[in-house]
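debug: dumping io for the single-chain case to check the tokenizer round-trip. Nothing else runs in this session.
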Amino acid sequence: MNLSEEEFCNNLLQVAKEAANEVSSIDFWKMDSTSTSPNGDTGITLYSGNSLKNAAMAEMRQKCKMVFTETGFAHFNICLKYD
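debug: decoded output
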């Protein structure tokens, strides 16, 4: 894994954690280089609800390590709460 990808993921989660009360969920989608799906082949929710607020740094780093593959593309969705 490219270190910059992992660090990007970690930084994204840390910033989102600072505003955890406003975040509904953080979802990650990945697809390999042969995919034809615009939304990705695999989607997972990294955090939802209060789980982000209580997440430890080590846990966030572990989640970032599992989401990337050597080839393909990835994107994150940060869903915010609003009234």
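debug: round-trip ok. Residues 3-18 form the longest helix (16 residues).
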